[in-house]
Amino acid sequence: MNGEWELPPRKKPKISELPLSSAQRASIDSMLHTFKKKGEFDTLRKKMFQQYNESAKRGMFEASLRAFTAQEIDRDPLKYLKPDRRIAAALLEGSAARGDVYGKTEQDIDTYIDQYMQIAEQALRGIRADEVGGEQANVEYRNGLKSDGAYAEEAGLRRQEREAKYKEDQKKRAKREAQEQKKKELEMLKKKQEALMKETTRLQTEQKRRAEREAWKAAEKERDRERIRKINEDRELAKKKLEDEKKAEQEERERRLKEHAEQ
Which of 63-77, 135-149, 168-182, 216-230 has the least mean pLDDT? Predict the structure, then answer.
């Protein structure tokens, strides 16, 4: 390390920790289900443990475990020998775990797992190709080979596209809202104009009817005056005629009296 601080190796994330969509998770679950159903997991596990059991690393682990167990018993014999053997085994197992006895073995097993990962990957890719077709599976494989930087760049481009689309959608929405608002204002103005025209027509009609009523009343008054004038005129004529007749009768009577007196 040359005295420099180094980051620990990055731990491989679990599938549950990855930012996957529901469709991607469903695809992975389907592949794993098919993989297990075909017995691939059992086959790889058996091969891995067989290789480990046949290797010298198992003997080294067992020797290390026996040495640790002997040291623990010598260090505290009452703790491990007095209780029941099953309890003692559990206590020794816990001490071994805390003493990192299993750490090297876990690393060895991880190494064996890594050796079989390529076989498992090929089997899973074959299952995926059967599900979606070889062309789509190859596209997904190439996407999987992209570096973090490439993914970050693509994510940045997609983010820019989303932002641009969002801004464009906002402009369209604002334009649409402005058009709708203008349409509403025009409709309101049209309704006001229609209401004004309707009220104007009503007032004109009412004014016309009022004028017609006033004209009829004036004509009726004139007719009444004409009737009264005619009645008065007829009365005067009748009176004058009666007076003339009386005068004529008086004159006739006087004339007769005069003639009678002269005889």
Answer: 135-149
CA 191-193-197 angle, 5° bins: 115
Rounded to whole angstroms, the Cα distance separating 88 from 86 reads 5
Look at residue 131 and tell me if it is in a domain.
Answer: yes
Per-residue confidence (pLDDT) for residue 139, from 0 to 100: 74
**How far apart (Å, rounded) are the C-alpha atoms in residues 225 and 214?**
16
Q: H/E element holding 96?
A: helix 85-98
Amino acid of residue 11: K
**Residue 132 belongs to domain spanning:** 20-145
Residue type (1 letter), 234: D
Residue 234 lies in a domain: no
Nearest 5°: the CA angle 143, 149, 151 is 35
Nearest residue to 107 (alpha-carbon basis) of 40, 57, 65: 57
41: in domain:
yes
Please state the pTM of the whole predicted model. Answer: 0.37
Structural domain total, the chain = 1
Neighbours of 131 (CB within 10 A): 13
